[in-house]
Amino acid sequence: MLLLFSLLCVFVAIESVPHPNRANDDRFLLPADFISSRRVIFQPGKSVVSENNDEIDTVVTSEQSDSEIEGIASKDRVWPDGKVPYVLDGDFNELQRQLIANAVEDFHNRTCVKFVPKKEADTSFVRIKYGGEGEGCSSLLGRRTDNFDTPGQAVVLNVECLNPGTIRHELMHTLGFRHEQTRADRDEYVKIFWDNVDDKDHDKFQKATVLDFAQVGTDYDYGSVMHSDAFVNAKNRDKPTMVKKLKAGPEIGQRGGFSDMDILKINRLYNCQIFTATK
Ligand SMILES: *[C@@H]1O[C@H](CO)[C@@H](O)[C@H](O)[C@H]1NC(C)=O
């Protein structure tokens, strides 16, 4: 009897070890997530992130150096062949999985970047984490080779980040793109109200000293999903921290989806020949 019990325990223990090839491994997006995501009409999200609902977004640039402030120091931060191995870490519900699948499919449809299930041999990979409430949304900038305590570089998608635009926004950070308003030439396009920028957030408004290579020769884009909204990091939420200098162009801070220029930037940075050939 005891023997049978211990045999059973061994069996249970073996069964519970996640196997990467298991057909219904929920650490990866499943075909069903992609298929069902096409049937759902997602609310594009607020076109402009509203005044009192801050998108708590951080780009974590660990080992930050001067060269990093100038943009991404080297092409080492670009994912080789545009392949980004990932795992889903945490209990995303069905709708949340569909939202992530929708964003991933959009990258796959319009760029040559591919989010692929992590294999054993992948040392650099993305761990898409479900953060708790108030933990915000964050990503590292580009591909990292650091040794993290928990292997994989985290992309944190808290409940308030699970909208089409913010998921695309965080994943663009992961590909190596910074906020649009930190471009070296931003002062020609936006006016920053430094007095209203929260003291702890001044760094976030620091602009690049040279044109970032991740801008890959595109014009300043007010409509980018990487542009923050007018009230981001404000001390006084009734007043903006930045305004457009030019009347033309869309409002800043849209989180509906990629702008055409976002797609072009990704395709240029990742050298996606078939997607850029006609541009
Ligand atoms: C990707 O392309 C397919 C085929 O054209 C389409 O059905 C699907 O809706 C697209 N997905 C997204 C997220 O746009």
UniProtKB/TrEMBL annotation:
Names of required cofactors: Zn(2+)
Pfam families for the chain: Astacin (PF01400)
Catalytic residues? E170
List the molecular function annotations (GO) for this entry: metalloendopeptidase activity; zinc ion binding
- Broad class of enzyme this protein falls into: hydrolase
Q: Which PANTHER family match?
A: ASTACIN-LIKE METALLOENDOPEPTIDASE, DISCOIDIN, CUB, EGF, LAMININ , AND ZINC METALLOPROTEASE DOMAIN CONTAINING
Q: What is this protein called?
A: Metalloendopeptidase
Biological source species: Plectus sambesii
